[in-house]
Design goal:
This protein is α/β, with parallel strands linked by helices. It has two domains: about 1-35 and about 160-215 and about 240-280, no CATH class; about 45-155 and about 215-240 and about 280-365, Rossmann fold, CATH 3.40.50. Helices cover about 35% and strands about 25% of the residues. It has helices at about 5-15, 20-30, 45-50, 50-65, 85-95, 100-105, 140, 195-200, 215-230, 245, 285-295, 305-310, 310-315, 325-335, 340-345; strands at about 15, 75-80, 105-110, 145-155, 160-165, 170-180, 180-190, 210-215, 230-240, 240, 255-260, 265, 275-280, 280, 295-300, 345-350. The N and C termini lie far apart (about 45 Å).
Length: about 375
């Protein structure tokens, strides 16, 4: 959906909340023809660095499988799975453990997957769903409770958010309308009473010109995950903050960012539908809402600690007998886990249904005084 189509949508319906604009722009971005992610596209994630990332996640999933008493199937539902690159890496590593691999049922959920007609959810035969045979949204999977893990990597940050701005001590919502054919922002009343409830729970005092993003879509996603998980874990990897950061004045102008050709800026109305829009995840809200839903927080740590605790350095050292491939794996381990890089940029939140062990290897303190050496 191009900018002109969004403008036509506004002409027909009138002003729309920013969350609706962001949802329309995201659909155009992720479903557009020829969309390329990774180093050749607009951004890349840890998945694009090296298959080592998926290999380490496979080790954590295998431990979860064991803690759940080795169920068959053990279902992993990956949200925002794209073309299945992470799934390929996880399944390749899982093949090292035949019993785990045989139990593993991997399902992809992605906006690029057509919605099932008639609302009939579809699993892929053989346990591995590629996008065309998977699910359009997590809510499509929810009628089929699973034992396993709901996994996402840089998914929640791309969900559409409402933007609230404080003017004269009062919170107002950012709406999008047209002025001379151009997209412009105007302030108005809340589009839903859920925004007021969210603000109450947030406990952030109104400060003039402050802006706050409200990710109601993340709460709906969490509710779908809770409905889906009969027993198991929710593993969320993303970048974000906790509510105390907001109270201390961090992100006082919001955290909305746009990415195009590996260049970051703050104008969401530039190249609409051709750039990636993201915001930081409010971890506190996800943890609090998860508790209400029976998804209890096991831990929130940096990606660096998570990967080191799961043995990324050891796995990199044993990656290949070929020195060139081994060298690439060692460099990737540094890029993924070293302090100051991706390892500190991203955090890992693990939540679980009741009655499960709280100790996971990935949440352990890897080495309290450990400093990895640069390869």
């Amino acid at each position: 959906m191009t900018e002109s189509v969004i403008c036509a949508h506004i002409q027909q319906r009138g002003p729309i909340p920013f969350a609706e604009f962001m949802a329309l722009a995201a659909r155009a971005y992720y479903t557009g023809p020829g969309r390329t992610l990774g180093r050749a596209g607009d951004f890349y994630t840890s998945v694009h660095v090296h298959p080592l990332f998926g290999a380490i996640l496979a080790a954590q999933l295998r431990e979860m499988w064991a803690l759940l008493d080795r169920p068959a199937p053990f279902t992993v539902v990956e949200c925002g799975a794209g073309a299945g690159l992470l799934a390929d890496d996880i399944l390749t590593e899982a093949a090292r453990w035949p019993d785990f691999h045989a139990a593993l049922h991997y399902v992809l959920v992605d906006i690029r997957t057509p919605s099932p007609r008639g609302g009939a959810p579809r699993y892929a035969a053989g346990g591995y769903a590629r996008p065309g045979r998977g699910f359009h949204a997590l809510s499509d999977v929810a009628p089929c409770p699973i034992v396993g893990c709901v996994l996402s990597n840089e998914f929640v940050d791309a969900l559409p958010v409402h933007r609230l701005r404080c003017v004269a001590g009062q919170w107002r919502e950012v709406w999008i309308t047209l002025d001379g054919g151009e997209l412009v922002e105007v302030l108005g009343e809340f589009s839903t009473p859920d925004l007021a409830a969210y603000l109450t729970g947030l406990g952030v005092p109104p400060v003039d010109r402050q802006e706050v993003e409200v990710n109601l879509a993340a709460l709906r996603w969490l509710e779908d995950a809770a409905a889906l998980l009969a027993r198991g874990f929710l593993l969320t990897i993303d970048y974000g903050y906790e509510v105390n950061d907001l109270r201390a004045g961090r992100f006082s102008q919001g955290s909305l960012m746009a990415y195009r050709q590996h260049t970051a800026h703050t104008d969401p109305y530039q190249a609409v539908g051709e750039q990636d829009l993201t915001t930081h995840v409010n971890w506190t809200v996800l943890m609090q809402h998860g508790d209400k839903l029976g998804l209890h927080t096991l831990g929130l740590i940096t990606q660096s600690r998570f990967l080191l605790a799961l043995g990324i350095l050891e796995r990199a050292a044993a990656w290949s007998d070929d020195e060139a491939q081994a060298g690439r794996a060692r460099r990737a381990a540094w890029q993924l886990a070293a302090p100051g890089g991706l390892g500190d940029t991203f955090q890992v939140l693990v939540q679980a249904t009741g009655g499960l062990p709280t100790a996971l290897r990935g949440l352990a303190d890897p080495f309290s005084t450990f400093e990895p050496s640069r390869p």
